[in-house]
TrEMBL record:
Region (Disordered): 245-265, 473-501
Organism: Chitinibacter fontanus
Record's protein name: Phospholipase
Protein's GO biological process: phospholipid catabolic process
Domain PLD phosphodiesterase intervals: 555-582
Keywords associated with the record: Hydrolase, Lipid metabolism, Repeat
Coiled-coil blocks: none
Amino acid sequence: MKNDYVVPLCPKDTNTATTTSPWFVQKTEYHPVPTGYQPLINGEAAFGSVHYAIAKATRSVDIICWGFQPSMYFVRKGADNIKYPDIKEPVPAQIGKLLEYKAQQGVQIRVLGWTMGPDDVNFAQWGPENNTPGQDIFSKPKTATKTQHEFDRQWYYERRLNKPANLQFVGRGFGPLDRLEILWRSRYRSADKSISKTTQGVLAATVTHHQKSVLVDYELPDQAIGFVMGHNMLDEYWDKNDHSRIQHADSKHGRNGAGPRQDISSSVTGPILEHLHHNFATAWKAAVGEDLLSQRNAKAVAAKLYPRTGGCALMAQLLRTQSQANKRDIETLYLQAANNATSMIYIENQYFRWPPLAEKIKAAIGAQTNWGRNPPKNGYLHLFVVTNSSDEGMSDGTVNTYRMMDSLGRADTIPGVARKSELDWREEQYEIASKEAKQAQKQVNASAPQVEGGIQFGSITPEHQKNLEQLSAAQQKEQEAKAALSASENKYRQAKKSGQDATIMPEEVPGLKVHICTLVSPDSIATADTTRKQHVYAMGSSQDVDVPVEGQQWTPVYIHSKLMIVNDVFTTHGSANINTRSMEVDSELNIAHEWKSVSQKLRRDLWNLHTKEMGAQDDPAVAYLEWRKIINRNKRRQAQKLQPEASLIEFYRGSPALTNKD
């Protein structure tokens, strides 16, 4: 039965209507509203915009962050103070000093961070990444100078000791009941039905508040501005578009993080600030008890908000993952947008390990081909992915990354895990076949005619004959499973012995063309493997021996972006990664819009950046071929120890290490 679609028309003006895909999430907490929107690519642009907005603040600054480093230089021009043409006096370049400076001017500063445990302890500081450096006397980032660390410690100490009313830092976390609820939902309500119990436990134990936003002067509609961010307020996240391998010792002069970093944020104005404020105000009330919605008469202010100049005016929507409120709108958004894909999907994300998204993409193109789309004639759906392949980027999620790659036919990009996963699967199949053979043998024994003194009593029954046939089939299946396991083990041993990966071939997904890539610094330097002499003593004698020294490899760019663009029309980005944690567990905040010119420009800007202006074509089929050329040329250049032609290289993960905690 076909659905009827009712479209309101004005016959005086037109008798036609144009249908569009449903990009926004319907019937949810934050509806699409007029927005002044400006994407901010990488740290120099993002932190510079936030710094200027805070420098001009006159009433309030509301910050939600995962990580906060008071000594971080938001603007890095070699100076401790920054002079803006429309601000009377220079202002501090470091965010902690800038907030103190504005507080002295009477601006109300509220910073809501994530902490695990009591506010003045934060056990998360001892995790893989210190999110509040200086909050504890032992927590010092590797790249921070002694002066920076001393300032960080003093800044947090002042907040704890004096608790100034107009400059507050408050930590928020999750209680035991929250964690139990998350564990239950992960087990029984997760979109990924194959998520491991280990992962479920880790998610509940290490749930975080991962949102990142800034709101300045909400009370003043004519100057209110907000930011929906992917960047954390830590040194590691400041970088320029050139992603140079050069690291500065002093952060006021440039990037001092461990490596280059790709990320995306945005500035927003207009009615969307009501929703940005609501997200902050409800979280602040839950943490502190202060009701900002009432104090600021938030609804009345919202009625006066309008998109201002400095960004494109469009319709946009804020979406959240908020497990404490049972909100999973970002998950709904991603699956809905993937279902709408007809020409291209571009994903730039820190992680790529949420199999339900891969299945949705395949289902979308599968449905289209079933309805008559002929890919060779009508075009393929092209999926372009930029994500991390390094140890830092893969961390706890190699298994689910493999599941994602395998689902899309690209297990060849992660051969070590693919081969190990194949071995695990073969072992599992052999165990199942062995159990079935043993069970069949038991049934044969139970139905066999009685034998006493070598004499058989009774004839073979039909039931026994059937059991014999089942036993024969089960034993044959067991032998085949054993042979397959043995063959896979031999391939794995041979590959390990030769030092080369066992060959895993890409598999074609009907109607889908896929590039999985990562990034390197354009000015990377690679050197050949060499040897060095080492003096050794053995058996009463000494000699010089050659010791192998591995050459320098291309410098990876760490991708921290959380972006998806579909059909050059739809865009979403913010704090949410492509994993179960971001879709269902951690608190996350994304923005989404369906403005073609803005989405297309952002995609072009990013692709020009990654491909050195060689692979940013609007036709995805042409871009797909150009990406393949760049990938192949960079493979050759990497083998020859030359500089990369462009940042874009193919995703490759040779390590067989299995991690299954995310």
